[in-house]
Design goal:
By secondary structure, this protein is an alpha+beta fold. The chain is built from nine helices and 19 strands. A five-stranded antiparallel beta sheet has the order 6-7-13-11-12. It has a four-stranded mixed beta sheet with strand order 1-2-5-3, with helices on one face. Strand 6 and strand 7 form a beta hairpin. The two termini are about 15 Å apart. The mean pLDDT is about 95.
Length: about 300
Amino acid sequence: MSPDDVLAALPPVRGKLAPQAALRDVTWLRVGGPADVLFLPADEEDLAAFLKATPAEIPVTPIGVGSNLLVRDGGIPGVVVRLAGPFSKIAPDGPRRLRAGAGALDAAVSKAALAESLTGFEFLIGVPGSIGGALRMNAGAYGGETAGIFVEARALDRAGAPAVLSKSDMGFAYRSSTAPSDLIYVEAVFEGEPGDPKVIGARMEDIKASREATQPIRERTGGSTFKNPDPALSGGRKAWQLIDAVGGRGRSIGDAQFSDQHCNFLINRGAATAADLEALGEAVRADVLSQEGVELNWEIKRLGRV
């Protein structure tokens, strides 16, 4: 279907439908083609009604704030759903718990936990992105991960039907979840433990300082490019060490480069294309496999037409 055909087939909404929306403007790598249609729902009811009425042959792809996303240069077919506004709310949900919308920034949830004197959420201050993405990939850093604080999530399936998922339903593993891929998360409940806000705040500041010192956070980047491999297969080496071992640090194709500061971070120095970034990543993956005998798997999610 052409973008015009997609737009014509969509139901009326209370939110915003933007045809041929430039996704490079909303991803941290600042590359990629447009969405046929970008949908910003007004609220959960608007999203559910839209999903129910949208023809099944039109693909629907949810994205967060684009922190861990590589949109290919051909753009994304169908409808891209981006949750913001009412989906970004964070509030206490009884003792030791927070309820957060899927569009809430991970760092904002960490700060909300500090305000409630809850420990266990500190790691989120070092995780770029939003809660929806954290649920999808069991995001983690600095010794913590989403599964460790997760209680339950609410989601909508492709037909707009609601679902409540427990921890066992999520099937969390390292940087992954086995929950159905067509689900669009709308909110989740997390639980921590009572803590001393001074200690919690100090830990968060330590994480922020470490991230600032070791990662190219002021560059156009997408976070960690590859997952850390199984230590039993890599001899205990992390992804960055394997990339370094094959001369990946600083390697470039056009304006795509593996960072000199942290070589598991791809950066766009200004004029890189999505194809440049993906080709560079694949070239380094191939070298690691051939020279070190270890297969690296992408942590950055790659979407769209080549």
